[in-house]
């Protein structure tokens, strides 16, 4: 519990510092080198000339591609003040992990953003994906890819905790009748007996094929737009 509290506090302090610091940097076009920039700041518990004092262990906070992600947030209509208020004004809420990845999930108190811990390889892959992601957002505004708002790393006590901030597509107040986690594979893709016994189980691909054997029906215009979007997204 203490470790989780320290992680959440460090995330809030780090994002508060880095996003606030960005306001002093003028708006400009995103350049190719912006996707590979990594900014780092040390936040000692006693504070410094640049950072506030806090009750957590000393930590270093890294921000990946800050100008590129600022552009993405603007494109998605996320204002800096709203981003900071959602993430930093109230304690983050830890969610029970619904998947097998071992990641930690946090949600902001207003249900706007999901914060997920990721492995080094995942963070590295996302950073390599950023130029293609940028092109896709500009050419395909209807994209169904996740909305990525930030990629960060908390370093403390020799441990690196990498996180991504995304849009929360499943707010807690929304009543879900059925939930399916679809990956496009049928190998070991059936919900376990333990999962099925839950009050709101998450089903998988084989369950979907069994339960929705007639598929989902769309009007021709919606179907055409959806297929075009999926095809474009798959090229990223």
TrEMBL record:
Q: Which residues form a coiled coil?
A: none
PIPK domain segment(s): 3-236
Q: Name one GO biological process term.
A: phosphatidylinositol phosphate biosynthetic process
**Keywords attached to this entry:** ATP-binding, Cytoplasm, Kinase, Nucleotide-binding, Transferase
- Where does this protein chiefly localize? cytoplasm
TM region positions: none
* InterPro entries, sorted: PInositol-4-P-4/5-kinase_C_sf, PInositol-4-P-4/5-kinase_core, PInositol-4-P-5-kinase_N, PInositol-4/5-P-5/4-kinase
Name assigned to this protein:
PI51B kinase
């Amino acid at each position: 519990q203490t470790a989780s509290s320290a992680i959440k506090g460090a995330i809030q302090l780090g994002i508060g510092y880095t996003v606030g610091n960005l306001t002093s940097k003028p708006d400009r076009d995103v350049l190719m080198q912006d996707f590979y920039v990594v900014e780092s700041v040390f936040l000692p518990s006693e504070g410094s000339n640049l950072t506030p004092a806090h009750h957590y262990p000393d930590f270093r906070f890294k921000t990946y591609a800050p100008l590129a992600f600022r552009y993405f947030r603007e494109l998605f209509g996320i204002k800096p003040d709203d981003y900071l208020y959602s993430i930093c004004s109230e304690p983050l809420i830890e969610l029970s992990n619904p998947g097998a990845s071992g990641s930690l999930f946090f949600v902001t108190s207003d249900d706007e953003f999901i914060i997920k811990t990721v492995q080094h390889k995942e963070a590295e892959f996302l950073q390599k994906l950023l130029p293609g992601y940028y092109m896709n957002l500009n050419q395909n505004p209807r994209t169904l890819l996740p909305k990525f708002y930030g990629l960060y790393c908390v370093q403390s006590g020799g441990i690196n905790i990498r996180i991504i901030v995304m849009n929360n597509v499943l707010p807690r107040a929304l009543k879900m009748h059925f939930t399916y986690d679809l990956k496009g594979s049928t190998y070991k893709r059936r919900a376990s007996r333990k999962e099925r016994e839950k009050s709101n189980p998450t089903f998988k691909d084989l369950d979907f094929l069994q339960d929705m054997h007639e598929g989902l029906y769309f009007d021709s215009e919606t179907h055409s737009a959806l297929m075009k979007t999926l095809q474009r997204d798959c090229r990223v």
